Amino acid sequence: MICEMCGKEVPVTKPVFIEGTKLEVCPNCSKFGDERRGSPTRGSAPAPSAQVIEQRLQRREQRMQVKDVYRGSESVELIDDYGGEIRKARIAKGMDLEEFAASILEKKGTLAKIESNDLVPDDKMLKKLEKALDIKLTESVSTGGRIGGGQNTKMTLSDFIKKK
Ligand SMILES: [Zn+2]
Known about the structure:
The protein is α+β, with helices and mostly antiparallel strands. The protein has seven helices and four strands. The two termini are 21 Å apart. About 4% of the residues have low confidence.
């Protein structure tokens, strides 16, 4: 069973009502709810769907990821679909490949390969493309932190939630 409040896997969950919604929660979370409320009439308080649970779990996942970012060293990496982003931005600016290539003094063939994600642009090219198209082709990625040893860990919201 999975607690619909905190997303924890627990042997047993308890149905409680929180803001009119029935949730199956772990004993720890059940104190937040009101279990005395009678059985809901159909439609007024629908049981959360699998989708709702999924969303909650995803949110929890995101919190964990935020924490990892703080812990780990960040590096800047090319986004997965850099080619698609370049093509989209180029088309949005009303340029065909040839015009675009000419405008940034690059070969059309090179740009075609980049747009189909077949060629990874080097830093210089990246900056040029980002500037010419007014887009961002990189993202900050956590590379995972080392545990212990002079770590300057910030207190994050997720830390706070976990300790509660
Ligand atoms: Zn819980």
